């Protein structure tokens, strides 16, 4: 077996086990086309803890995710988001308590299908978020203390490919797609005023670490709707992340992620959300 082949075998199951921010199999904020499957298991449960420091205005987010891979091509999951308030008296009230996230994904085309090594994995998926009371959602509540919040969602198409030939002994992961969404920043800034198509891409490089571990260094870019609902003058930029994934050993389905996300800074001349270099971390374990 070649060196690259051994590396691919060691970290590919970890890609299938790692949950992204909203519970789907993915990077930090964008999905992979892989599902939470495991060889020889009809049902493969995965759990994850996520943390993101949104800064002094937006506050801090924590999430608990449960995901189940069904066979080789399906996954279903649920995530609950907990939110700790920021400390800015003028703006922090716009980010309220956490919300619910349901996700599903189906793999349409397996990677290297029919023996064609150039074929990426291709999947479709969806996110449904309930009880979202952030941003303009909060402003529209007739009684914010009692309001039930709004619902938003995503429908996405994604392709992912592991390419071992670009750099010697350093496989490259390429992923990208498009999502239809009516959410702003995955619901963390409430709903967008309407549905729109937003692109996303990710690239990562896989290095071997000590004792058969893998270290995956990557970056993502995910376009956002231009402004949140009821805030037409706020301009939300493309989200950028820079992240590192550590797979300590291929023996266990354990992954640890660290990352920095550029979310939103000077969104209009008089408003700076102070969230352009925010720390996040994730821990995922598959059974």
Summarize the structure.
The strands form 2 sheets. The chain has a 12-stranded antiparallel barrel with strand order 1-2-3-4-5-6-7-8-9-10-11-14. The chain is 8% helix and 53% strand. By secondary structure, the chain is mostly beta strands.
Strand proportion, as a percent range, falls in over 45%
The percent range for helix content is under 10%
Total strand segments: 14
**H and E string:** HEHEEEEHEEEEEEEEE
**SS field, number of helical segments:** 3
Determine the structural class based on helices, strands and strand pairing. Answer: mainly beta
Q: pLDDT under 50 segments (min length 5)?
A: 1-10
Radius of gyration: 19 Å
What is the subunit organization of this protein?
Answer: single chain
Verbal overview:
It is a single chain. With 287 residues, the chain is mainly beta. β10 and β11 form a beta hairpin. It is globular and about 55 Å long. It has a twelve-stranded antiparallel β-barrel. The protein contains three helices and 14 strands. The two termini are 27 Å apart. The N terminus is likely disordered.
Question: What is the secondary structure topology, with strand pairs?
Answer:
Blueprint: H1 3-17, E1 43-53, H2 55-58, E2 60-70, E3 74-84, E4 100-109, E5 121-132, H3 136-140, E6 150-167, E7 170-183, E8 191-208, E9 214-222, E10 239-247, E11 253-262, E12 264-268, E13 271-275, E14 278-286
Antiparallel strand pairs: 1-2, 1-14, 2-3, 3-4, 4-5, 5-6, 6-7, 7-8, 8-9, 9-10, 10-11, 11-14, 12-13
């Amino acid at each position: 077996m070649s060196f690259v082949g051994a590396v691919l075998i060691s970290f590919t199951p970890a890609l299938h086990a790692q949950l992204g921010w909203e519970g789907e199999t993915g990077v930090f904020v964008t999905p992979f086309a892989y599902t939470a499957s495991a060889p020889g298991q009809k049902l493969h449960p995965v759990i994850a803890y996520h943390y993101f420091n949104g800064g002094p205005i937006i506050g801090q987010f924590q999430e608990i995710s449960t995901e189940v891979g069904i066979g080789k091509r399906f996954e279903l999951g649920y995530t609950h988001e907990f939110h700790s308030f920021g400390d800015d008296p003028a703006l922090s009230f716009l980010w309220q308590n956490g919300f619910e996230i349901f996700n599903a994904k189906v793999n349409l085309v397996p990677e290297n299908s029919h023996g064609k090594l150039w074929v990426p994995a291709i999947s479709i998926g969806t996110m449904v978020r309930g009880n979202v009371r952030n941003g303009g959602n909060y402003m529209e509540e007739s009684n914010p203390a009692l309001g039930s919040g709004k619902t938003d969602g995503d429908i996405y198409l994604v392709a992912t490919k592991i390419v071992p030939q670009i750099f010697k002994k350093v496989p490259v992961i390429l992923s990208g797609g498009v999502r239809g969404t009516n959410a702003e920043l995955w619901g963390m800034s409430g709903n967008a005023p309407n549905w729109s198509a937003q692109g996303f891409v990710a690239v990562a490089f896989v290095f071997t670490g000590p004792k058969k571990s893998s270290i995956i260094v990557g970056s993502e870019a995910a376009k956002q709707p231009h402004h949140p609902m009821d805030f037409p003058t706020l301009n939300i930029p493309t989200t950028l992340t820079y992240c590192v994934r550590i797979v300590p050993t291929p023996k266990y389905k354990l992954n640890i992620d660290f990352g920095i996300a550029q979310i939103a800074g000077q969104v209009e001349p008089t408003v700076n959300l102070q969230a352009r270099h925010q720390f996040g971390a994730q821990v995922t374990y598959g059974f």
